[in-house]
UniProtKB/TrEMBL annotation:
<feature type="domain" description="Choloylglycine hydrolase/NAAA C-terminal">
    <location>
        <begin position="2"/>
        <end position="308"/>
    </location>
</feature>
<keyword id="KW-0378">Hydrolase</keyword>
<protein>
    <submittedName>
        <fullName>Choloylglycine hydrolase</fullName>
    </submittedName>
</protein>
<dbReference type="InterPro" id="IPR029132">
    <property type="entry name" value="CBAH/NAAA_C"/>
</dbReference>
<dbReference type="GO" id="GO:0016787">
    <property type="term" value="F:hydrolase activity"/>
</dbReference>
<dbReference type="InterPro" id="IPR052193">
    <property type="entry name" value="Peptidase_C59"/>
</dbReference>
<dbReference type="Pfam" id="PF02275">
    <property type="entry name" value="CBAH"/>
</dbReference>
<dbReference type="InterPro" id="IPR029055">
    <property type="entry name" value="Ntn_hydrolases_N"/>
</dbReference>
<comment type="similarity">
    <text>Belongs to the peptidase C59 family.</text>
</comment>
């Protein structure tokens, strides 16, 4: 289970961020995918044209769960249990694509959301298991580009369509329409202190700032994470530059990050936030923050040199060591 959001800062910079929540450790790392690749996908081979970076692994073939391409298109895949509908085989003339291969295909072929909207008319998602999870993964996808437009793809039938996401937030099941209707339940929440009513001759004492958010759900269900992320995205102070925006996105995702042990799944394993990623859709950088060292962003930039000169996928292994910055080492030495 995961949470994702898009964000635009004061300078017009556009970002896509997400948590990757699952009970299986995917061994996440950042991977660069060069231009013009033939990918032997699980439902058949497909071609890519554009280079991209993201959370990927080179297994039997290149697999990605999120990333940003050379045109600033960002895509992330999230779990969509009990709602995803796939086909057994593709119709004549359409590309058969396993759902776990959609991110790589979209990043490798779409220059914009409008471009993707045309391409998916010729694609169908096929029911094919993903080896890494030993099942057919029920997935949906959030996509954004440097225009700031955000859409989701929810495969619920043979024809794929992009759905406008007016709030730029996506979690898991139910579908987006349900989540959008549900946030009307919390439409009275605010970031200001609410005045207390008088009861007869009794004047209740104020509880102080924060009373406007009383009723904001705090659990880890997809429904509550959707509401909580929208609330924070709406009220948090908007930063100007990229470093401050990345810092802000970390704070937002803090509210939906799942530590190990607090959310058990049906097999008894713990669903937890393995990593959080941050895609700068204008600066073309991909940053990852691991469970083992929260707060420490490990980043790869998509450069012209990579795009023009690197011909094969490149994996960037990540540092999982927790970082502690000791400030008084010299002082302690002097005291001795």
């Amino acid at each position: 289970m995961c949470t994702s959001l898009t964000y635009t800062n004061q300078n017009g910079g556009h970002f896509l961020a997400r948590t990757m929540d699952y009970s299986i450790d995917f061994g996440a790392r950042i991977m660069f995918m060069p231009r013009h690749r033939a990918v032997k996908g699980d439902a058949g081979e497909f071609l890519t044209k554009y280079g991209f970076i993201g959370a990927g692994r080179q297994l039997k073939h290149e697999l990605f769960t999120d990333g940003v391409n050379e045109y600033g298109v960002g895509v992330a895949t999230l779990y969509f249990p009990d709602h995803a509908v796939y086909q057994e085989k593709a119709d004549a003339g359409k590309l058969a694509l396993a759902p776990q291969d959609f991110v790589a295909w979209a990043l490798g072929n779409a220059k914009s959301i409008d471009d993707l909207r045309e391409h998916i008319k010729h694609v169908q998602l096929i029911s094919h298991p993903a080896e890494v999870v030993a099942m057919v993964p029920p997935l949906h996808f959030i996509i954004s580009d440097p225009t700031g437009e955000t859409v989701v793809l929810e495969p619920t039938g043979p024809e794929l369509k992009l759905i406008n996401d007016p709030v730029g937030v996506m979690t898991n099941s139910p579908d987006l329409d349900w989540h959008l209707q549900n946030i009307s339940t919390y439409g009275m929440l605010t970031n200001t202190e609410q005045p207390l009513q008088q009861y007869g001759d009794y004047h209740p004492m104020t509880q102080g700032p924060g009373t406007g958010a009383i009723g904001l759900p705090g659990d880890y269900t997809s429904i509550s994470r959707f509401v909580r992320t929208n609330y924070l995205k709406h009220y948090i102070e908007v930063p100007a530059d990229t470093p401050d925006t990345l810092n802000l996105l970390q704070y937002i995702l803090n509210s939906v990050t799942i530590p190990k042990g607090v959310k058990k799944v049906s097999d008894g394993e713990s669903d937890y936030t393995e990593y959080r990623s941050y895609m700068d859709l204008d600066g073309l950088t991909y940053s990852m923050e691991l469970y083992e060292n929260p707060g420490d962003l490990q980043q790869v930039a998509l450069t012209d040199d990579m795009l023009n000169n690197v011909m094969h996928p490149v994996e960037y292994p990540l540092n999982h060591q927790a970082h502690v910055h000791i400030l008084n080492t010299e002082e302690t030495s002097e005291l001795k």
